[in-house]
Design brief:
The protein is α/β, with parallel strands linked by helices. The protein contains 15 helices and nine strands.
């Protein structure tokens, strides 16, 4: 029995005594203890060593007081499992030396046996669950097929990913074959995460906002829908597609328990678009955590009042930035924990 199950209750639409809070990328680079490990071990050693991944996962729970842990890993481990080389260069980002560009490149990739290729992730989940000792839920995650395709084809990060767009428009059949392979792999990967002990999952579509609404459906949402449908009866699933908030109603219709939001939409607008039957998550601009602490408290309070109590999880609108002071991150979390909504009737939250 999880002692602090605020996040899970909120995802199920059950009453809670306050709003739950966690932060995307909370296990990582802004924490001094993480930087100590970073100086000793390269990135994928940290990811692929269950004891290290567990230690990093627990750091924000112990030091910041968040209401959920999220496994320390990376979305690109799926591409490694499928047969591609992935390099992670500190302060530069991911690089894939041999991207997929033509049909012949499919001979180099496969839908893998996830237990064989990603067993270190599942071992890290089991170890983390043991060390958490039911204090808070553990969130598992994966990258959405479209976002993974962006790296698979482009071979590196990009602001626009014009290369993968051109690939999709000129070789649509090949693009959809790859997206389905990514989808099948991701479903198997997340199902095994659930078997290993995660309590919820989040699907990250970091580059969904680069697509028009029609293309978002064509190249992203239809594949995320398959994943959500495969997982939704096992654990609550949160769908986060940065920049794609124009498609909130369509994301809700996937059957997900929660929809993550970036900072480019007002809370009231998001709720109107989402309706009352889904939990919203977000959406403070991560750069706001560089503000003085009094300003952080002011902005977080404004955000909380905008979303109101009930089906809402406080979070950032994207991952926490590397140079955020730890006390600023803690101010964000503590402000959420201490917030009292204006109406006394709303202090015990009910499903909206």
């Amino acid at each position: 029995m999880i002692k602090n199950d605020l996040l899970l209750k909120t995802l199920r639409g059950e009453p809670t005594e306050r709003t739950p809070v966690w932060m995307m990328r909370q296990a990582g680079r802004y924490l001094p203890d993480y930087r100590t490990l970073r100086d000793k071990y390269d990135f994928f050693t940290r990811v692929q060593t269950p004891a290290l991944a567990t230690e990093i996962t627990l750091q924000p729970v112990d030091q910041i007081g968040v209401d959920a842990a999220i496994l320390f890993s990376d979305i690109l481990v799926v591409l490694q499992a499928m047969g591609l080389e992935v390099q992670l260069i500190e302060n530069k980002g991911p690089v894939l030396p041999d991207p997929v560009r033509i049909a012949a490149d499919l001979t180099r990739i496969r839908v893998p046996d996830v237990e064989e290729t990603l067993g270190y992730v599942f071992e890290a989940i089991r170890l983390t669950k043991k060390e958490l000792n039911n204090r808070v839920p553990l969130i598992g995650f994966a990258g959405a097929p479209w976002t993974l395709l962006c790296y698979m084809v482009e071979g590196k990060g990009s602001k626009t990913f014009d290369g993968v767009k051109s690939f999709c428009y000129t070789q649509p059949e090949l693009a959809h074959r790859l997206l389905q392979m990514l989808t099948d792999t991701t479903i198997a990967y997340l199902k095994q995460q659930v078997k290993s002990g995660v309590d919820a999952i989040q699907l990250f579509d970091s580059w969904g906002g680069l697509l028009s609404p029609d293309d978002f459906e064509m190249f992203s949402l239809q594949y995320m829908r398959q994943i959500i449908q495969a997982l939704k009866n096992e654990v609550p699933a949160i769908l986060f597609a940065k920049g794609a908030w124009g498609s909130i109603p369509e994301m809700v219709q996937t059957g997900c328990a929660g929809v993550g939001l970036d900072w480019c939409i007002r809370p009231e607008t998001a709720r109107k678009m989402a309706g009352q039957g889904v939990t919203l998550q977000g959406n403070l601009d991560p750069a706001r955590l560089m503000s003085p602490v009094p300003e952080i408290k002011k902005e977080v309070t404004k955000m909380l009042n905008g979303f109101g109590p009930g089906r809402y999880i406080a979070n950032l609108g994207h991952g926490i930035l590397p140079h955020v002071p730890v006390d600023h991150a803690k101010a964000f979390v503590d402000t959420v924990k201490n917030h009292v909504y204006q109406s006394r009737e709303k202090q015990v939250f009910s499903s909206l």
